[in-house]
Amino acid sequence: MLTARVIPCLDVKDGRIVKGVRFANLRDAGDPAERAAAYEATGADEIVVLDVSATLEARKTRVATVRAVRERLSIPLTVGGGVRTIDDAGALLDAGADKVAINSAAVEDPSRIARIAERFGAQCCVLALDAATNERGTYEVVVKSGRERTGIDAVTWAREAVERGAGEILLTSFDKDGTRSGYDLPLVLAVARAVRVPVIASGGAAGPEHLWEALRAGADAVLAASIFHDGEHTPDDVKRELRAFGAEVRL
Amino acid sequence: MVRTGVANLASVLSGLRKAGAEPHVSDDPAAVRAAPLVVLPGVGAFAAGMESLTARGLDLAIAERVREGRPLLAVCLGLQLLLDASEEGPGVRGLGVVSGHARRFGDHAGVRVPQLGWNRVVPGEGCKLLREGYAYFANSYRLAEPPPGLACATSQHDGPFVAAFERGPLLACQFHPELSGAWGIELLGRWLAAGKEAAC
Questions:
Q1: What is the pLDDT of residues A201-212, one digit of tens each?
Q2: Please, which residues bridge with residue A127 across strands?
């Protein structure tokens, strides 16, 4: 039986870790390869690196960062941020990513999902879906780090992306991200029910009980950044608590 | 390490280096025949994987190694390429050096496909390299029935399936040892040691 995965996320800008509240107010928090290795040593099941820098120059740094992280890591590595083309995906996979996450570029042109999945396999192709609640009380896809609302229903988009070949969904609540008030559970529930591929819940975790709530809502994996960065918890600590709650984890 | 053209090699190369090897990449059948140890990686689809092997004559070189009992490590799709066929590529023949058909995980509630994550591996009778522990899997197809004549380890996802099999210096893993943390790197180390011994 598959265990629930606990995934520390590194938001990286220009080769350094940053973490902000609601995708803004970035502050420096260290070297990605060092930090990734420390997370593996303390029980991380996987690492996600999201590159939040946007310039062409920074993309070259990104490949170097992925290479450095890979050399230290013997667990899976997912990389996202600015992935648009097959070449972008290929460069990251060549550098040592095991999966690539595609976000805004997939919303712009959904056929990009199929192209990446056909070339590299569905298990390599992660849809990063950022969602926010709207005035109708449903969830809407947001892009460009949350700056732009699309009017697209999040659950419908999740289904479509899976039909096109996405092998996993990294589901981030824009409303909850960085707030430390818990994951958006109705969002997790709706998406996890709508698709057969694994769903990673992201955005809002402050402690193990939040991670447990997301797993109970149907998430297969839980992603968190600040609770690990600040040294409050290690992945192993969190997993011991999850096991006490009743989750199956790798310890 | 065999360059199949469809696989991502960086993680496997990095894992082998961590286990103490100095891997070289090649798509030359003569090199695959001559190498003391060979790794057949595998990410991608069954039909594309077979096509890239046969296009270069690598299929015969790899099949020969298995028949002669020479050291080979097959990873993920690499394991499935050793079989007769896979539901993923109807009508495409596998290397056929291990009998069996890979089939897709069933369409049942609660069974996520692809299987992405850590699953418990339990070695069966006769396993020497494989030990109990958690391994990282990334697959939609699997071999459900243990192949005859090989020592098998099993895991559970939509029922039991073959997580890995071994026979002497032949080791085939449905999981990714290179992504299975210290447990996986240790397994690579045991295979390297067994392979070096057999190659002498």
A1: 999 999 999 999
A2: A102, A169
Query: A93 contacts in B (CB within 8 Å)?
Result: 8, 10
Question: Are A74 and B179 in contact (CB < 8 Å)?
Answer: yes
3-state SS class at B156: strand
Q: Is the peptide bond before B71 cis (omega within 30 degrees of 0)?
A: no
pTM of the complete model: 0.95
What's phi and psi for A31, nearest 5 deg?
A: -90, 125
The pLDDT of residue B110 is 82
Task: Tokens for A129, please give them.
Answer: 């879906």
Rg over alpha carbons for chain A, rounded to the nearest Å, is: 16
> Which H or E run contains B139?
strand B133-139
| Per-residue confidence (pLDDT) for residue A226, from 0 to 100 | 87
Is position B176 annotated as part of the catalytic site?
A: yes
User: Residue B125's CB: how many other CB atoms inside 10 A?
Assistant: 6
CB atoms within 10 A of CB B68: 9
The answer to whether ipTM exceeds 0.85 is yes
Predicted confidence band at A24 (pLDDT cuts at 50, 70, 90)?
very low
Q: From the candidates A7, A115, A123, which should be mutated to test the interface with B, based on the most B CB atoms within 10 A? A: A123
DSSP letters for B161-191 = EEEEEEETTEEEESS-GGGSHHHHHHHHHHH
Buried residues in B70-104 as b, exposed as e (16+ CB within 10 A): bbbbbbbbbbbbbbebbebbeebebbebbebebbe
Short-list A188, A181, A208, A245, CA closest to A43: A208
DSSP class of residue A208? H
